Amino acid sequence: MKRITRFFLIAILQVTFLQAFSQDFWEEIILPDSFAYRCMDISPIGDIYLGMRGFSYPGGIYRSTDNAQTWQYLGLTEKPVYALEVCSNGDIIAGVFSGIFKSSDNGNTWYEVYYSSGNMTNIISLSNGYVFAGGVDNLHGIIRSDDFGETWDTVHVFTNYGQENLKALAVSAEGHVYAGTYNMFGEGSIWFTIDLGETWTEISIPDFSPYWPWIFSLAVHPQGDLFAGFYGQGLYRYNFTTQQWTALYLPWVTPDDILFIGDYKIFVGLYQDPNGGAGVIYSEDGGQNFTTLNSGINGGNGGSIGYLFRHPNNLIFALGWGFYKSTVPVFTDVNDNVETETIRSLNYPNPFTDKTIIGWCISEKDKFVNITIVNASGKIILKEKIINNGNYIFHAGNIKSGIYYYSILVGNNLYTGKMICVN
User: Fold this and answer.
1) Is residue 366 part of a domain?
2) In this predicted model, what pLDDT tens digit does every residue of 147-168 receive, in sequence order?
3) Is the pTM here over 0.70, yes or no?
4) pLDDT at position 3
5) Is the distance from CB of 219 to CB of 170 less than 8 angstroms?
6) Is the residue at 80 inside a domain?
7) Structural domain span for residue 411
8) Are 320 and 348 in a shared domain?
């Protein structure tokens, strides 16, 4: 019975989410130097960092602390920045042309921590201080730091040394690290380590003959399966128990980044390919079905998207041939592993002017309810933990007319709603 309840609850959540698509899903963000950005990262507190292309464009890093409204230039002038990683302790690591730089003061100053003759294009960190990195052009392996990027050593050299380049890194909830490569003269490969880089195991990959399998993206699903995007061959899912690959979204597309929101929602950024589509595809059933999600990107036609991030305010940010954010927040689905109670929520009146009552009914009352209200830009208007009496009166106060979204969290159950304020 609870499984049936959960099914209907998720169905309601999905309808609410899809109804918001009546407007463009994406909104373009105007940046200080248009079309000169190569990489990005978002810190746990919501600061957004963008790495500049360099060479014929300006180099360095920009930061926004106000949801991409304003930007501050952080330095590394004229350095092409290929990768950015904000560590759990707040340190920022930047992969650049010929090495790695680090900042321990929120980007105000930078110092070199690793020098190489290649471009450092991929960096990923764990909460325990371990950082893994690699790249292209004479960087034919993986380097590791165990002190938040202060010192480095080589922990893995690819089989086809001198040919393979690191293209993708991913980490699981358990701290297992995955690496994907491409090879200009042959097949790419996928490797993983379960002991922080001491030993590495190769995963067999699908046969795409006569084409070479090149791995452009990797991500670990919350349930443990590995998702991989292959150049020109689509999106695949690998199950470690069966050791089998399943095709999810087929040629001729190149998934360049993969973002999971809970167990079911999946956003995939596509690399612009002459033979296939580009932009973003989206699934709300764990990858069984996908739909194009390009409204607001290049007039709906899409374009290369290489980075997808979820901001702490639940907006999705996308970087590629432009910089975009979602016009609506995206919430995590109900946890599939948790037995759930029915939550029914509505607000009345809707639309409202001065106040509206948000109500809910659950079969077994919890003592407290967490309620969050955000505007259409993702800015948090209200976030409170209140006694669970079945309703909450929201007073409009000085808020502007517009669309607002609320979420009610009771234990492990989440329900979201949409309301309109008309002043």
Assistant:
1) yes
2) 999 999 999 998 877 688 999 9
3) yes
4) 35
5) yes
6) yes
7) 343-421
8) no
